[in-house]
Amino acid sequence: MLPYIGGLLILAFALASLSRSQLGSSILFRSYWLLYLIYLGPVVILGIVVVLIVLIGLNWRELGAAIGFGLAQKRAMRKRRSRYSFWISLLFWAIAIGVLIERPGSIFNPTQTNTTAVANIVGESETPSNPFLGGRILPTVSSLVQNSWFSIAFLGLLIVAGLVLIQSVRVAMKEIGEMNSQELEVRRKEGLDAVNLAIMLVDDRSADPRTRIITCYQHMIAAVARLGVPVSSDQTARELERTVSSTLMLKGSATAKLTQLFEEARYSLHDITDEDAANAREYLESIAGELSL
Length: 293
What we know:
Layout: H1 2-16, H2 32-58, H3 60-77, H4 84-102, H5 117-122, H6 137-144, H7 147-202, H8 209-226, H9 237-248, H10 254-267, H11 274-292
Helix pairs in contact: 2-6, 2-7, 3-7, 7-8, 7-11, 8-10, 8-11, 9-10, 10-11
């Protein structure tokens, strides 16, 4: 977009100077340097794109690895990323493709353009006054650069960018998998320590069975909360059960049975016996065995 914006600014400046187009009254009077700049523009832009393609092509593995590692690190720091950057990049890609479609002479629009606009403005018979600064050399060089070359360069940039994207996604998935594995290992270790302490609490004979069951279950919830999982007081016991199971990756039914026993101890009015406390201990041992695998 920058070449088009720059061209519009130069054109606006030129039109504003037409009323003063006399010798010494305008910097655009016989300003052949402006023509040189316009002639060199396509060559410079195409050269920059080619250099960019070469640099990316030579370092696509390193660039992809760096981007992928950065994505994995950002995902580890915050799970939910803003999607504004994705939509903004998508908008610019759409603009770029739209320019290729609308621009005559591009790979998506083979219509040839009229290249006589500059000649009609400055006069076909008039040539720059100082041949040493360019003369007809720069127009000749500029005419060698075809519009289709920009389309080919754009496609080349897409190819090398695609290689970088594939490499970054592969590295990001690998890093995220390793981070998730390490995080799960830490959670299982801390969860196992919490279960062992909960077994000690349910074995404490100084309290009644109802209190022991409620205390050990509340200790499990507190341990999950310390792992950074959001736990609130307005959650039901079943919601807490799903939170514990998903956090510690538990597949067995011991968590559900322990939750059911906690609900009976917390809300029911019938007696809770030592047998219920022994069942709670059995469920905790089952959870500990699953975490130890």
